[in-house]
Amino acid sequence: MFASFMTDTWLAATIVAVIAGVVGFFVVLRGSSFVAHAVPKSAFAGAAGAALVGVSTLAGLGVFALLGALTIGWLGRRGRHDVVTALSIVLMLGMGALFLSWSSEYAAETYALLFGQILGVSRSDVVVTAVLAAVTLLAVAVLFRPLLLSSTMPEVAEAHGVSRTRVELAFLVLVALVTTTAVPVVGTLLMFSLMVGPAAAARALSRRPSVAIGLAVAIALATVWGSIAAAFVTNWPIGFFVGTFAAFAFVAARVASATARHRQRPPAAAGLALEPS
Amino acid sequence: MSALFAPGFFSSSPVHSALVAGAVVALASGSIGVLTVIRGQSFAGHALGDVGTAGGSAAFLLDVSPLWGYLVAAVAAAGAMELLGVRRARGRDVATGIVLGAALGLSALLLYLGTTSSTTTGATVTILFGSLFAVSSSIVPLVAGLGGGGLLVVALLYRPLLLSSVDEELAAAGGVNVALVGTVFLVVMGLGVALTSLVVGTVLSTALLIGPAATALRLTRRPGRAMLAAGAIGLGATWLGVLLAYDSYAWPPYHHGWPVSFFVVTLIFLAYVVTDAVAWSRSRRALRPAPELEAAG
Q1: How many domains are contained in chain B?
Q2: Least confident stretch, A14-28, A263-277, B221-235
Q3: Measured at the alpha carbon of residue A199, what is the angle toward residues A23 and B78, in degrees to the nearest 5?
């Protein structure tokens, strides 16, 4: 499990978990699970297209993740947000279906893109992942206050001159960035689990942003590490474990916070028993 | 004529099944979709489609029709979402997300087991992206029955559903059991999603559920008319998609046909964008206030 050929996987997955936790916090805070689901899915079409024209998968992922995010932003200016998100997803996926039918890739490749793989990570992937992750963290640091303010109190933010549409657009681009970073390891479908599950669990345990972000990162790390280990041992797809552990973390956190509230104890005390592995 | 309809279009039996199944599904999902959009449950509708992936792959493992898998999974997930609090607006987004995430994980496992236990490798792509041409004629009566059943439930619950969608408190005051209506609707939505999954695949089922409905609600704000319009738009997109896919066997680059799902989805998206632009420019000319437009979805 800790053999040299696995080092890059552990590294990439760790980086992915950290930024998934950080950005996931804002996803849950803004109630944007659907967007967090839509952007990685759009990216899938890009990967299929990249395979077709013979450029790097990562480039395809990045372009289509951004394209998906901007479509949602553009159509979302008028029209209901959930509706335009749904439509953007399916447009991108429709293209993905077309690209797939054109390409001569094996079904196994499609499967790996959707559900992730632990053995396909190379050193150059890790470098790109690390660079993208650094950019993401920097963007979050710069945008932290306006993002937090407009997510919790949009009217107050507007009064302070924080434009709602601009923050929304910045947030969408952020999600696109995280997606590009993460997809080669955990897959387009499960990236979403990793963003929403741990962050939602953290929010159930603490209402303070800094604590919740820390907890979200910790739970995401535990989820990913546990998943790699489990996938390595059982030879089952890593996506299964990421999805299950993330959902389990959320349910455990909800139960823990409910009992803690019941006993009038501070919820943080119950938080230690939540690592899902 | 033969430039438009490639030779053999009207005598091909897969085309017949595709046209009939597509029509039934488009009409049923039009009505269910309008309610889904009005209730603001697009994400739940989409999630049920993805959950269907788990069901479809389980069905593949058990060697039964994927339709049963879609149905059972969607109905079970509707129950789970209800349990995690999909009705409270604040918890809805996360509850849907958690159920969706867990189901995606499960489908990863089931597809993996399915593809390793048999030699066929096309399951992943078939379940996810579907093909209307693969609908066998034996399943068409079942599709028609389920579609009709869904429409019947919507017709029976039309007034309480609409009332509780627009104003929950008013509906409760009027003696409507809002919780029960919400649960029944989630189940009906699961049924609609299962049917659309059969046509365009689980990941694209959202297109047929949400797209025509959102387009129709741009054209008219009266629910009854919107349902009819949504059905018509869905039907048009499905049939035109089938025709184009059939014609595309002669198209580049590989001459083995473009996927039906691609055409259906793209036509629906184009319909929405065009309608949106027309409605917007018309409302600009009429100088109507913006909030009204926003509420129309």
Answers
A1: 1
A2: A263-277
A3: 115
Is residue A189 a contact partner of residue A114, using CB atoms and an 8 Å limit? yes
Q: How many CA atoms lie within 13 A of A24 on its CB side?
A: 35
Does B132 map to a domain? yes
pLDDT tens per residue, range A147-171: 888 777 777 777 777 777 788 888 8
- Full residue range of the structural domain in which residue B153 is found: 13-295
Q: Which domain holds residue A230?
A: 4-274
What's the structural domain count of chain A? Answer: 1
Confidence of residue A221 (pLDDT cuts 50, 70, 90): very high
User: Is the bond leading into B160 cis (omega within 30 degrees of zero)?
Assistant: no
A226, A17 Cβ separation under 8 angstroms: no
Give the 3-state secondary structure percentages of chain A, helix then strand then coil, rounded to 5: 85, 0, 15
pLDDT digit string (tens) for B180-233?
888 888 888 888 888 888 777 776 778 888 889 989 988 888 888 889 999 999
Going by C-beta distance under 8 Å and a sequence separation of 6 or more, which residues neighbour residue B88? Answer: none
List, in order, residues 6 or more apart from B128 with CB less than 8 Å away.
A114, B53, B201, B202, B203
The stretch B172-184 carries a mean pLDDT of 80
Q: Examine residue B273 and state whether it is found in any structural domain, yes or no.
A: yes
CATH of residue A13: 1.10.3470.10
Task: Answer yes or no: is pLDDT of A271 > 50.
Answer: no
- The beta-carbon neighbor of A243 closest among B40, B106, B214 is B106
φ/ψ region of B201 (left if φ > 0, alpha if ψ in -120 to 50, else beta) reads left
pTM: 0.79
- A contact test, residue of B29, B34, B98, B217 with most A CBs within 10 A: B98
**pLDDT above 90 for A219:** yes
Chain B residues with CB-CB distance to A79 below 8 A:
214, 218, 276, 294, 297
Assigned domain for B1 exists: no
Does residue B171 sit within a domain? yes
ipTM value, please give it: 0.77
Cα(B246)–Cα(B257) distance, rounded to whole angstroms?
7
Candidates B43, B208, B248: best to mutate against A (most CBs of A within 10 A) is B43
Chain B residues touching A244 at Cβ < 8 A: 102, 105-106
